[in-house]
Amino acid sequence: MSKDLDRNNIGNAKEAGMATDLGLTSSDYSLAVSIFFIGYLLLEVPSNMILSRTRPSLYLPALMTVWGAMVIGYVGVNSKRGLIGLRFALGLIEAGYFPGVLLFMSSWYKKAELARRFSIFYCASLVSGAVGGLIAGLILEKMHNRAPYPAWKWLFLIEGVITIGCAIIAIFVLPDFPATTKWLTPEEREYAVRRLEQDDNSSRAGDISHWQSFTSALRDWRTWLFFWAQTFCTCAGTITYFVPTLMAALNYTGQSVQYMTIPIYMVALVIVLICGFSSDYFGERPKHIMAMASMSTVSLIIVATVDNAKARYTFLAFGAAGIWCCSPLTLSYLSNTICRPAEKRAVAIGFVNAFANLSSVYGAYIWPASSAPEYAPGFAVSTIFMFLCIITSLLLMILTKKYPYENTKDGRMR
Questions:
Q1: Which of 41, 83, 159, 328 is deepest in the core (most CB within 10 A)?
Q2: Per the domain annotation, does 39 fall within a domain?
Q3: CATH number for the domain including 223?
Q4: What is the pLDDT of residues 169-195, one digit of tens each?
């Protein structure tokens, strides 16, 4: 959750005075949001390739510690150039965390156990959105212009310290992979590995090289279809960075802008959890994705076409929830499908997540300030992408049934 507090609170910081202090225009803010994902794109795949052959209990907390220190570095930012440079560097460091955790979980849990766990992990982002809004509101209220920093710098300072504290705790509680966790007995390690192999999954690093795993993942048409499915929901998901801005467009002011983001994330939290547990219970992924994308498509159309502020607020919550449901479901569907060898799964997860996040680079520009208060371009593009998410999920459902991965050479590897 600390990662998402750091990343998502740029929207809260913007409304808390950062844009004014740094002289940010609408395009400057969009650049600061989008450049983060350039760094993300560059290092996600290499990071996952390294993680598949190292110790998660040390690697993941190390990433957390470094980006926590960099978030504290916001205190020293006094220009738009400094903000943009720090955001780029932060993207480089955070690149390995999200896909790394997905790879880590897919190496411990069976296919029918993944969606709810991916959803719980993804809900950290939603909780951080709600908590971030609460923290931002309290800081804006209690610490505005309290020496020596403005409120938005206090926001990043506090959250950077929280991140480093969480990283230290993680070192002592995270296991490694099933076959390499030293504090398990040999029998427990063997059981953890065998239960995955019986589920046609893999957690062991094998003899396949980094280059072989990379080329194997990129030659597989499934990787590319999952890439498009994740791209559509990720680009629509740039709404995350503009939720506080949308609250201001609905005529909320001051700390109310921050506090009114909380119900949006809480509604999404409930829906994402229900959907993730339901997907595991029924052992089904694509129909759940299509259902959530359909809910989002209809809701966003209503938000874009009605004038009543309360109706727009209500359907914004359901529209955003549908978007946020699709991402963890798509990634768990990917992990279930390209399940072995472990190195290929690592590359596929890293590649799909990295290049899907590239859509956030241009997605950040679909919400220009000039389109306020309707924000028609943002809602129109998000609606189209969620409709395309329905189409790609339907294609995945049809094609993965017609051409089972288990019948391929990689799918038979043990």
A1: 328
A2: yes
A3: 1.20.1250.20
A4: 999 999 998 888 888 899 998 898 888
